Task: structure prediction
Amino acid sequence: MSLLQKNFTALIDPAVLRAHQKPILLTAALAAALTPLLAYIRSSYRAWLALGPGGIPHHFLGWLLQVGMRALARSDTREPLPRPYTRLEDVAAAYGPAGERSYFGYSGTTSLPARSGDRPAVPSFVVPQRQTSDKADAATVAREEAFLDALARANPRVFEARASRLEGPLHRALWLRLPREGSDEDEDDAGKNKQKQEELRIRLGRGAEGEFAHVHGEGSVHLTMSPGDAKTVIESGWGERHRLSGVLGTRGILPWGYVLVYAPRDEEEFGVLREIILAGARYASEGAGVEVVVPEE
Result:
C-alpha cells in the first residue's frame, strides 16, 4: 500500500471521523450558507454594474457603499407623501414659502395627465437610481440634454448647463447660479446673501451646490421640485422620489422634492417632461427676481 493510500485510509477511519465530526459539520454548514449568499452578491453586483456609472465609484467598493446606504434609504418612493406625513403642508414647511407653491401652469398646463401603462422597472439600488425598462433612444436623450442647454441660454443670468456634480461628468446638468459674496457688500447685504444661500441649500439639497436637474443615459431625469409638484408627478405616474430624498431632513443631501422623472416614450410624453423640467426650474429660481424664459424648440 502506498503512502497516499495509507493517509487516505486514515482519513476515513471511523475513529478519526468521530474525532473531527464537529469541525467537519461546521465547515459543511458554513459552505452551505455561503453558497447562496455569494451567488446573490455576484448577481446583485453584476446588475448594479449594468446601470452604468453615477455618483459613486463604479466598482465593487461603490457597490458596497450603496449597500451600506440601505440603512438610511427609504422604500416609500412611489407614495405621493413620504411616511409618516399625511399633509402636504407639513412636508413643504421645511422649504419656506417656495415649498408650498406649485410651479405648473405657466405654459397652459394646470395639472399633469395620468401617464399611461405601467411604471418602468427601477431597481432597488440606492445609488445610482435608474430605470431598466422603457428606455429612451439616443436621439431622445440628446433632445433632453439640448433642452437643458436651451433653458440655460434663454436664462443666462439664472441658469448654466454643465457637467453634473451629483452624477459625474458623463451627465449633462442644469445649475442655478448661486448668489456670491462680494468684497464690496455692506454688512446688511452680506447677511441677506448668506441667508439666501442657506435657503437655497435647504431647497435644493446640501449636496447639490445649485444643481437641480440632470439627464441619465437611458433618458430618465433627476429633478428637484417643490414638494407639491413632486407629489403631483408621483400621483400621476410620471416619476418617483429618490431613496435618499428627505433623509436627515434639512441637513440632508437631497430634499423631499428630489424625484426621478421617467424617460419619455413618444412626442407627447416629451412635452410633459418639458413642462415638469420647467416647473423644477421655476422652483429652483424662486427669489431670483426674474421670470424663467421658456426656450423655443
In short: Strands lie at 159-163, 172-176, 211-215, 221-224, 239-241, 258-261.
